[in-house]
Amino acid sequence: MESNTAVSCRNVVKVYDTGGQKVTALNDIDLEIRMGELMMLVGPSGCGKTTLISVIAGILDQDEGSCEVFGKNLLTLRNHEKLDFRAKNIGFVFQAYNLLPSLTAAENVSVPLIINGMKRVEAERKASQLLEQVGLGERTASLPSQLSGGQQQRVAIARALVHDPRLIVCDEPTSALDHETGHTVMELLKDVALHKDRVLVIVTHDARIFNFADRIAAMDDGHILKVVNSAAQL
After folding, report:
1. For the domain bounded by 5-99+166-233, which CATH number is listed?
2. Distance of alpha carbon 10 from alpha carbon 7, whole angstroms
3. Hey, what's the torsion of the CAs at 185, 40, 201, 154, to 10 degrees?
């Protein structure tokens, strides 16, 4: 894998067995994602976008092929090695936010730091600083139920970034947001998450945010149809 390559997927295949019927979610996927870029995966629902980022993030194992992240073949790692690698290197923003309802915003954001061994007081202090950075400095003690959808999304983004991961993966970060809030979230992701030593991968079907991408991979039926430099080329 070249030095500027963050993610390299080769001949990746993923098949689900749904009640005895086999469904090929990923079919011979080849994709390289470079350091310092925002790569978007676009296409219709069910085309394999979320499955692909789950393989890249080490949440799912592929059935065939290889996927290297920062030079590590995740399929060859033992479970505890994979968990350790993900905890240190990968931040995931889930489509449903997945905030813990009984924890405050600061407590939710501090979870990855505590998992990595940081003391709770220090973790919540760093979490509060990042919430300030994403415009939620006055909501650190708020529960998720007391926050709007856009605010919950920013908490989820802060949680994904707080441990300084090199790879940030987002699943439909603007799907439930209005245009203005979605634009603000994307500006936030680019400003906070994207540096030359990091990479940002976003799954979306929201054409309003395509222009934020450095490159776009168009998917359909488990295949990558093409990788382009702008939405005009789709």
Report:
1. 3.40.50.300
2. 10
3. 10
* pLDDT higher than 80, residue 111: yes
Residue 232 identity? A
Distance CA 52, CA 187 (A): 24
Cα separation, 3 vs 14, whole angstroms: 27
Q: b/e map of 176-198 (b: 16 or more CB within 10 Å)?
A: ebeeebbebbbebbeebbbeeeb
Residue 230 pLDDT grade (very low, low, confident, very high; cuts 50, 70, 90): confident
Q: Which residue, among 149, 152, 131, 151, has the nearest Cα to 140 in the 3D structure? A: 131
Domain boundaries in the chain? Answer: 5-99+166-233
Residue 1: pLDDT above 60? Answer: no
